[in-house]
Design goal:
Length: 198
């Protein structure tokens, strides 16, 4: 029965896997922080604020509490994946973790689900969200938004084909532009925002 932690076979597994599956150590710190932040802080954070306020009957304090709890849970998830990644430094993510913890069948089902349903669905949803944001600025809609979403997916796919180094630089660049407006929203919201009277 295989164990989740590292074992004696890790070095032999590394020798059997192609070099492209291994991320150089010099990229680990910034790359992983950027990757986890990019997974957690997506386009949805700019659209979910109104829904959270609606569900909390426009109560600013309760809405902030929901965001704090959600952020804490996300940090716990990130720490769990960080621990798993440190104990098993191979590519594959949760597919590898599930394969070693339970069975290769479970890992295969998870990978198939990510490829066919979960991953592709979330990618399409995020592409539509990003294209809709651009569409609101330039004043287009309908099929134009869908074509823009397809173009975004193609651009990001091509960027990742250039390898770990190039895609990590792009990931770090986009993370800054996602965190900057979010920080401004939080700062100006706390300093200048007023709770509406209902």
């Amino acid at each position: 029965m295989s164990q989740i932690g590292g074992n004696e076979n890790d070095k032999s597994n590394k020798n059997r896997l192609p070099t492209a599956f291994w991320i150089p150590k010099r990229y680990w710190a910034i790359w992983w922080v950027s990757l986890v932040a990019g997974m957690v802080i997506g386009s949805g954070v700019y659209y979910l604020g109104s829904y959270v306020l609606e569900r909390t009957t426009m109560n600013i304090g309760l809405a902030l509490l929901c965001w704090i709890i959600g952020g804490f849970v996300s940090i716990l998830g990130g720490l769990c994946f960080a621990e798993l990644g440190a104990s098993m430094p191979v590519a594959g993510g949760q597919t590898v973790y599930l394969s070693r913890a339970y069975s290769p069948v479970v890992g295969f089902i998870n990978g198939f689900n990510l490829f066919l349903i979960n991953g592709s669905g979330s990618t399409a949803a995020l592409a539509i969200a990003g294209a809709s944001a651009f569409a609101g600025v330039i004043g287009v809609g309908g099929w134009t938004v869908k074509l823009m979403a397809i173009a975004l997916i193609i651009i990001f796919t091509i960027t990742n084909l250039f390898g770990v180094k190039g895609s990590s630089y792009f990931q770090n660049f986009t993370m800054i532009f996602r965190l900057l407006p979010l920080a401004l929203i939080i700062i100006f919201g706390l300093l200048m925002g007023k709770e509406p009277r209902i």
